[in-house]
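PT: before anyone asks, these are the final sequences, not the draft ones from last week. 1045 residues across everything. Please model them as a single complex and drop the result in this thread when it's through.
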Amino acid sequence: MEDDLQSRVGVDYVETARDIVRDIVTGWAKTLTGLRHCDIRLEVQQGKEASVENGSVKQAGDDYSFAIGAHVLAGNGALAPGYAGNMLGTADTSRLGPAIKEMLTTAHARAVHSAGLKERARQRFPTLGSSLADLTWAPVPIHHRTIAAQYETDPLGVSLQHLIDIGSEASKAIAGLGNRVVYNVVWVATSMIRELFVSSDGIDIDSEYAQTEALVFVVAAGQEGTLEFYDSLGHQRGFEVLEHGVNSGPIQLPNLYDFSVTLGKDTLETAAAPAMKDTETDVTVILDPHFSALVAHEIVGHPSELDRALKYETGYAGRSWFYTSPGCDQRGEQVASELVSAFSDPTIEGYGHYLYDHEGTPAKRVYHIRDGVYEEFVNNRQTAALFGVQPNGSCRATDASFVPLVRMTNTTFAPGTTDPSDIIGDVEQGFYVSGHRIPSISESRDNFRISALKVYDIKNGELGRLYRNGAVMSDSKNFFMQIDAMGTDWRLYPVPNCGKGQPMQTKRMSNGGPSIRSVARITGGSS
Amino acid sequence: MKPLVELENAARDGLKQLTAEPEIEAAEVFVAENGTLIARLNYTSHIPSNGLEEPKSLANIGVGIRAVFNREGKRLIGFGSEASDISETGVRTALEKARESAVFDPEFVSLPKASDTPTVESPYHDPRVLELAQSDFTDAGWSVIEGALNVFESSEELLGVAGDRSRMAELGLIIGGDVTMLQERMAIASSHMPAVQSDESTLAMAFITAMIEKEAAKGGGWAAGRGLDVDFAAAGREAAESAIRSIRGDRVDGGTYNIILGPYAVTDIFNHLVLPVLGLELFYAGATPFLGRLGQRVGSSGLNVYDDGAAPGLAATKRITCEGLPTGRTDLIRDGILVGLLSNHYETQRIFRDVDAAEKLGAPPGQYIEGLAPRSGFRFARGGGRHFDTIPGTSPTNVVIHGNDSLPLEELVKRVGDGLYIGRIWYTYPINGISAGDFTCTVIGDSFRIRNGRMAEPIRANTLRINDSIHNVLGNVIGIGSKQRDTMVWASDQIVYAPEIAVRGLHVEGIAQHSENA
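LR: through. Structure below.
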């Protein structure tokens, strides 16, 4: 039995698999007819998790996942993509080569068949079939790299009991805040993830990273019913994230205990506060950095994903207010006040950090908005080729069995130059919006209503009364153009649950910004 | 996929293996294989595109073990799983993971026990989907595109807008969405239910969006069924026809309107705002807008909602849950009264032992034994499938919404008089948290003005936001339509059979005043 346990797949298996994958992708795959390109992504995650409810542990686990994805671009005449994804296990390690060949064969068959149907559609629809194109990938530098994880406390060295203990301590502390706390859950996890990308054009990237995170959910009773808050803690580092927090530039995260207690206290305090009422007109609003992070995510990050701009997500997550149609887009246009700059940068430290994306493209900083003018979308190799720009390394999947999508990375407003206390101090009457909660965004992201954990009124430069259930609502461009202060207090926060694609892929990333002042409607509740 | 008998044998042999372990008091072996086949579409007339962007699949097979360990008189519950190996070795590996991770949960009572037997008669799935050829779902994807292109190319109205056939592509015609087919096989055996039970299920869905971008006209089309009999091309045609109907849409002033919610809008509201908060676990946690309202009015009289995983002929029907319990009908709202909740075995057992249960529910659980029965314990994940590597959560299956006095659309429109028909909404979220009941969403297509009791001009897509409360939607029903559509929304696991529902006095705001994309 001991032997079985020792032989479970772990992150080190990627090293063993690398040669097998490379031989097949750069050698055997050439026998597939009409092949233009193929790649294999292979990923092993090894880690521990625990879930604690009201101080009582409900579930724990120490496990691995092993996923693989195949992509082929092929056709006999027309050209089309095909994919296949599998969840594998330890039993597959003895037959990895045949398994990969089978997946490439499957993806190839889909590509070739689809290419034939594309050709047929072109002929059947003389007016509208001509836009059915043989899309290819833009070339990128051919790199061979092995990238090591960064951490202080190895996630694999942490005992499951220790993880349970730290989660239990946090959950008990929340429960101990008083009998108005009616429920809480603390979920904690720490893991190592290792990803391999090998393509027929010779790219061979082996990246490993640590990931440690927590999700805390608190329900508290108030005079007008219950209120629930949740928030996340997370970083691409080891177990030290939960034990000690993170203090690194814009990333300032408390340890799990302090994070949980603060969220518990906030929930209690806000549950007892009066409900916000709608303002009749636009008012001065100041967003704290945590709230700004979600605005950066929804209003800058998502519409800056080039697949959305090119309509790939029309049926799901929507289009982009930065791009309407060929020849009609916002690049080079003023979309925000000149105080506003925003970028995506996976090369900086963060929850969305990486050096190569899941198409083997080197990562880089992409400025979406610079001094108020729109500049560049994040893209993948197909959309870059289509758009006539260079790939900028922004294509990722939730795990290797899923098809990679264009994704924002560490996407943030850049810091400004105003002291945050002055941003509040200059306001005679307005609202201070603290902590993001739930977003609802129009399809092209040109309008938003985003709720806050807490809203305070501001009178004569000072914070006043606290309200619950407040939200900011505005047309995006109006809001951006009227920004008159960006703070120096730049922060990056983990966002663990960005959904995109079909089936829905949930991706982790960092979003951030400083304090921001503009004007918008404040909304309250309808119930 | 492996034959079902192999999964059944693995469950049977696995249970024997586990019950021979001295420390184990009770155990459950869940063996499952899933395939999700997806043809994801992206056709654009004004931008070069692949048409069928992603013909793809996700596949997995494995075993999951839940075991109750007796360690020095203390009962611990553990879960472990192993992918790609349903042999004795796989079961042993999963067991060791369960053993290593076992915890003491004071609220755990027992692994599932059946008090009833499944009533669903086979076959209720399409065996052809389980043995699908590579080309079949690719064909289905292209049939949607061709269905929509046929409508676009032959549309006189579109031609009129373009002015010339050679300029039709400049209108920015978009066809998006997907065809998805689910292949599910599972077998389960446990100490409490040692006879192996198994299930095979299939689901085929098309969820299509078409757009005439230059006109900000957007339409939806969808189809769902158990297999290859689904007319996928019809979903493409429907989406394109709906988009064409929305040409020359206009803005609507903000205000309070009587609104007919179309089937898709009803589904979106139920999927994001109603069904999640009818899970028993949220009553336990105190985080539902219906806290303490079991047995009380939560909607207008005449409004009925039930979930039925055993309904003959419906798309998401299954024989047993992923806990091995019979599927069946759970009435949730009957004549406007909350009478049942979605639950799994763990949650049902827990609420019956919770000293605060009557306060949380609004009535002692013993008064609602049928309404709290564990018929919703499924292991859905990753966009489809019954997954061996997760413990059962709570999920609906076939959700049916209907009225006592079902009305034709013409009658609903008459009752509304002057108002709006909202066909499709998006990003429908509980903006102030799930407990508050407030929601917001934007109107993205298939929507029209209603004037003088008649359907009138289309509403321009993406120019309206609804800001209101779920209590107002459920409680201010003017009338419920007689026709139900099988609908699903992005990333949902259930099929909702939704009618049109007319609601009094919902609040909308005009948005995106200066946007070129609206």
